Amino acid sequence: MSATDLLAQLADGAFHSGEDLARQYGLSRTAIWKQVASLEKLGLEVQRVRGQGYQIEGGVDLLDESLIRASLESNAARHLAQMDIHHRIDSTNAELRRQTPTAEGATVCLAESQSAGRGRRGRAWVSPFASSIYLSTAWRFHGGAEVLEGLSLAVGVMVCDALEGLGVEGLSLKWPNDIYLHGRKLAGILVEMSGDFSGPCDVVIGIGINVQLPDSVVEAIEQPWSDLRTVASGDFSRSLLVAALLNRILPTLATYEREGFAVWRERWQALDAFAGRAVVVDNNGQRLAGEAAGVDERGALVLKTSLGLQSIHGGEVSLRLRETTA
């Protein structure tokens, strides 16, 4: 028996007798105890109660590949070339960047936890076990990086659409890659590209969504945050959320070179968290104040400034609300 087998048993949230587990797998009670210890190294809290056995209180919503695949619409399933689910990995984006992308279709990497999850600007992304979505998708484009402007913004709209389809309300977008829930950060997007500016270009799209963060990790988060546990219905499943994301992302990747961001612009602006508000943009130490005026057809942030409209493109850019005085 592996730790994976034991986790599958304890995922239901019920007590499981160590004696019964040992008998079922033909192991000693000591061997079962060692496997429990390996689960605790993943960050899971396993209760031990004499006379009852082992329990993960509340259970664990493990990712289920068969459920994800069964929930894919045909237009998404036909674009899925490969899907891998890991218990623990350094980073789903890093794993896909180590691989050679398939010539056609998407390679999808999921993890129950990450040891080195990253957001934009190299920030750490807190990644506790089975508590969030850590999803990356690799796709090869042939028209070059120049046709991919605005892709991270379009993905943000897709994430919001997937969540709204599962009954989540109160979502908004912060340029260029954050998803808010009631004004607090719920999810982030990291798009990494390699290849020719005008030729073949490999793209890895990473999506992290807070689902049910344990109290033990929230102190490590450096900004106001939110997760889905307070707004999701009782039948919410991380696997169904993954399927909902892929149902929107995979067909879009197949058409993005042709359609670009322009078809997503109106929807993005309807979700804009900072529309019409006073903001400050910090671009590699250069600060620019103005009023957020949405995005242009290429996905650049538009600012109303004292010098007129200015467009801010991607890069190491930080967007913040500007403090105003009465």
Describe this protein's structure.
It contains nine helices and 14 strands. The chain is of the alpha+beta class. The relative contact order is 0.12. The strands form three sheets. The protein has a seven-stranded mixed sheet, sandwiched between helices. Strands 13-12-11-10-14 form a five-stranded antiparallel sheet. It has a two-stranded antiparallel sheet with strand order 1-2. It is globular and about 75 Å long. It folds into three domains: 53 residues, Winged helix-like DNA-binding domain superfamily/Winged helix DNA-binding domain (Arc Repressor Mutant, subunit A, Orthogonal Bundle); 205 residues, Bira Bifunctional Protein, Domain 2 (BirA Bifunctional Protein, domain 2, 2-Layer Sandwich); 48 residues, SH3 type barrels. The N and C termini lie far apart (66 Å).
